[in-house]
Amino acid sequence: MLIERGEDWSMAIALSDKVSVLSGVGPKREEALQGLGIFTIDDLLSYYPYRYDDLGERLPSETLDGEKVTFKGVISTPAVVRRFGKRSQTVLGLLVDRENVRVTFFNQPWIAKNLEVGQEVAIYGTYNAAKAALTAIKLVPASIDGLAPIYPVSKAIKAKTIAELVEQAWGQLRGQLPNLVPDELREKYRLLDKNQQVEYSHFPTDKVESKAGRRSAAFEEFFLFQMRLQLVKQADQSFLGEALQYDKARVADFVKALPFELTSAQKRVVDEILADQAAPQHMNRLLQGDVGSGKTVVAAIAMYAAVTAGAQGAIMAPTEILAQQHAKGLAKLFDSAGIHLRVELLTSGLKAAQRRQILEDLEAGDIDIVVGTHALVQDGVYFHHLGLAVIDEQHRFGVKQRAKLREGGVNPDILAMTATPIPRTLAITAYGEMEVSVIDELPAGRKPIITRQLSNRQYDQAMALLKSELAKGAQAYVVTPLIEESESLDVQNVTAVYQELQEALPNYTVGLLHGRLPKEDKDILMAGFSDNQIQVLVSTTVVEVGVDVPNASVMLILDADRFGLAQLHQLRGRVGRGDRQSYTILLADPKTDYGKERLAALVETTDGFELAQRDLELRGPGDILGTKQSGMPDFKVGDPVKDLTMLTIAQEEALKLVRSEHWDEKPENAALVAHLSETMAAFRHFD
Fold first, then answer.
1. Which long-range contacts (CB under 8 A, 24 or more apart) does 24-31 make?
2. Which is deepest, 39, 205, 238, 620, by most CB within 10 Å?
3. What is the CA radius of gyration of the chain?
4. CA–CA distance, 427 with 228 (Å, rounded to integer)
5. Tell me: the pLDDT tens digits for 612-645?
6. What is the pTM of this model?
7. How confident is the model over 70-82, as pLDDT tens digits?
């Protein structure tokens, strides 16, 4: 039970109070704390240290080379300050239990005034065993013996201030915090009581306590996050969908009539989706599969199932080019199987009369499947009976757009698709409210793309390969990097490459594609490349999600080290879509280890899931799906990459709890329910 407010309000605080109730927190400091995400006392006590300085006293003989340590001893030689311009060294001798250690403070000349021979001091720093020397970081009070917490800070507030505020708040609330993780789970996974968790995290006496505190705090953080996700999912499913009574025989006949055999992964995923469609709950499923893994045919089977149930299907793509490709591909697929469906394209580029007719027919139920862009979620678009909405490249659409599409029908099933391979960490966090299906194998007969990295000095080798493929009748992409600071420089950059290739390839037509071109010109260019009227397409990354050109067999990427790993893999996926052996050439001279590792990973494997996991390990989860689309939550304690097992268990336990009857009415879950009620309103829906 939290302390009730008494007359002396300064001594009676609650977790929900603003940090301004603490002594020493005025408007300016409160604003600085808010900049760190600390608004309430609860936020403050949950703002755990990211590391600890070990201030425990040790002897040099007990200390490893390069270890951070605190030596307590007597100053044996005077502190001498040596200056080198603006820099300085303060050097002294420290006698530590008969062992003399040379101590050096860098750029702290003032410290010499407070040090005298014979004085007992404790100094924290990094030990060099070979030289018996300590590179000093700071003087510490001789009375301190333990771990000093180090907090993430900003320029506006010091770590020392946070430590003092935590101590002040904890002094008033020690022993009174409710347990948010159910007792059963704490016992099962040997987790600390909430009060011990906070005590051991902020005020550990040794490393064992700090590790135990962090472990319990990380699980609590993951568990609460997953509880919110599962409640979002539960609320989503509370809107009853429709059990589509599709014709199993007709769907089976369609699959048999396909001009190719489905892979085992495609068959498994189709079964998962059809089971969802037949269930009364509305489907919210993410279909992820590498470029060329055959997601579109899976979507076609699912939409056909909806049609056999008397409903309509819709597929929304991020670009008009991709929408046109889907419309043509679906019509061709159904025709080849002898199935006569009306598939229509609805984009903003339609003439008014055409658009009006399609909208009328869509509402009347005369159109079986409609393919479009954002035009599908605009006002005035109504369906007769929308049974399934497929969203291609899911992370390019927000929650509101998905909801708007759903409003156009009677809460249709949602199947989102992405060609961005998502490692398990991100699938659990960024897409935790969705069921996930994975196509993890490529169709039979698909030749792996050969990827090579060449230095900029080997440009001629890259051009020789490109010319050789063009001579065989193939086509090629040449991609230049974006210069983020200036769009005009991007255009200059790609234009210079375009002009150079026009001169180098006089017998071929070279096209130029960049972000500043009018939409109509982009469409004409891509259509020309698709029809082989253009043999070489010079482009910025706007080609990343583009039209399917089976005849393109070379992807030449200039300054490849300036692209992200996921983006490079997406670009590579533009080739290798036909029968030809395809190549991706990475032209780069990477300067950093990260740049070298990224390109090496791309050369070593074409497995998008493996690359996504490597990318996650190389640079963390922040930008795997693109800066604004990743939806990756910012965990304060847990590391979703390193703590994947813990994150998975937290998801499983949260799912189990929300599915148990009347869990939210049980007394032992009261604190958890209260916390979720308070935080759900502010919970960001990651999408």
1. 24/161, 24/164, 24/165, 24/168, 25/165, 29/157, 29/161, 31/156
2. 39
3. 31
4. 15
5. 777 777 765 544 433 333 345 678 898 877 888 8
6. 0.62
7. 899 999 999 999 9
